[in-house]
Amino acid sequence: MSLRLREDAERVLKEWPAPSGDAQQEALRLAYLEHLAGHPDGMWKACRDGHVTASALVVDPSRGRVLLTLHRKLGMWLQMGGHCEPEDATLAAAALREATEESGIASGLALLPGGPVRLDRHHTPCAWHLDVQYAALAPEGAEAAISDESLDLRWFGYDEVASVADTSVVRLVERVRALV
What we know:
By secondary structure, this protein is an alpha+beta fold. The chain is built from 4 helices and 8 strands, in the order ααββββαββββα.
């Protein structure tokens, strides 16, 4: 299992500045670090007490929209993301891999500079996900294609997201809008 990925996750979480004045995000950052300190397997799906995951909201700022996937197992509209894999060298690489695989956008996705944009802890059928969330900028003319993990894949205007997604995704979109 990749010690390099774990070291990167710890570095990212130590260095990540929670959005100014957001005590909840700071508390999550510290909880993630505590989780990793107490769980040698805390990066991996096998850790039943929870594991760090990586995701990316695919955004097209020029058209004011985001790409969401209707997750096959959860039946919810979500950003692209999921479990870290042993071949992922960094959290950013894991987020970009997930965004590329689940969006079907074969080339041109680029993570927004500056590292993660948000953290979100949520329970899933396998365990707690300690999600480190990035934003991926879509290239002009990007064409999405549904993956095996999706029931559907669709672009939504920023203001449409609240009508289809939960508050976690809405907060992620709000944070990304403030940065792009």
